[in-house]
């Protein structure tokens, strides 16, 4: 994750089309060979492609302009110009393309699979050569069309990490330690208070066929949604996670209000965050008074949110970690099953009355109907 970058401002240009050619057939025994100027080639496109091995937008920051190749000019003997080479821009999953001026969302790579492509700008068409302009009254046309110009746009790319579970908590709550204990990630951990300054991803292996991606979001502080500390720089990454794990430091003096403060910060950023299923892990129960604090926190949360599961753990000592792992797996599994059921019900409803109505005969005005072959 060195050089982590979740935003990039770039310029993209599609290629210009090649110019058409003005040429005539010149052979010794064919004095009136006629026009044979070829067409220009099409300009290259600007294409975005999803690459799951990418984790940041750092490479796009190093190169600010991405330009496709221009199409080649047409030549004599009806030779067409070569099409310009496309420029393919690789982006990680979860990338959003926005217009740099209006901030309008152009495209969102949320559910696309590996190597999925999106053609953003199309290259200009090549111009016609003079062979296209010959007629019975103009047998020697001396003009051809120029190629169409390509497009130029300034766009902003934003990355929101795609993960199944997002770890939420104040600095030094133990999120990085939990990620290290459950996954193959190795974020920086130290015995003194500090906060992770970049998101970290880890994979929790369930079995040979499935795993869970966990994202350690940099520590939130009170007022983060208003710009304090790291501000809301990394809060957007939580919006893409399916579930949340709240980490509460039971050794902190503000352990009673920690959960409520975290919820308020997330709700201030987006109401949708508070609708995500969650688990609360009360960490550091090995510290003196920590377990009693965890019990107190659990009673408070269960009184307000009976469906929220609260688990006391000690990441450093390994206490309660098996229960926490099982709870995380169950949370994600239940979420996936619920999504599959919703997709199945939507598919069935699409083949109901609405589907049949779309196939029903609709009486149209005969004057407005155009049949194949009647375009002229």
Explain the overall architecture.
The protein has a six-stranded mixed β-sheet, with helices on both faces. The chain starts with 6 loop residues before the first strand and ends in a 17-residue tail after the last helix. It has helices at residues 58-62, 175-182, 235-238, 255-269, 290-304, 321-350, 353-359, and strands spanning 7-13, 46-50, 65-67, 87-91, 95-99, 105-108, 117-121, 152-159, 165-169, 200-205, 211-216, 243-249, 278-283, 309-312. It has 376 residues and is of the alpha/beta class.
Mean pLDDT across every amino acid position? 78
Q: Decide which structural class fits the backbone.
A: alpha/beta
In spatial order, strands of the major sheet run 10-11-9-12-13-14
Q: How much is the radius of gyration in Å?
A: 30 Å
Secondary-structure element series: EEHEEEEEEEHEEHEHEHEHH
- In percent terms, what proportion of residues is strand? 15-25%
Provide the low-confidence segments as ranges.
187-197, 223-231, 353-376
Largest sheet: 6 strands, mixed
Tell me the quaternary state: single chain
Overall, the morphology is rod-shaped
Number of strands: 14
What is the terminal separation in angstroms?
A: 61 Å
Summarize the amount of helix as a percent range.
Answer: 10-25%
Counted by DSSP, the helix tally is 7
